[in-house]
Specification:
Layout: E1 9-11, E2 22-25, E3 35-47, E4 50-62
């Protein structure tokens, strides 16, 4: 499948995700990019406000129908 996203996004700690997991991305602004993506990398950060994960999606594995 074709790549759909570049860059990364920040999410909460739940649900848990690691590199090589599959994630579903649904975008109301760009529905053609909706689909299942491989997770390229994950960075977890904690501070006094709590914890977040920065997720970098990789290649698009399949489209949602």
């Amino acid at each position: 499948m074709a790549p759909g996203y570049e860059g990364s996004f920040t999410a909460w700690l739940i649900p848990y995700v690691e590199p090589n997991y599959s994630i579903g991305i649904y975008d109301e602004d760009f529905p053609e990019k909706d689909g299942i993506y491989n997770v390229e990398s994950v960075t977890t950060n904690f501070n006094e406000n709590g914890g977040v994960r920065t997720i970098t999606p990789g290649i698009k594995l399949s489209a949602n129908k």
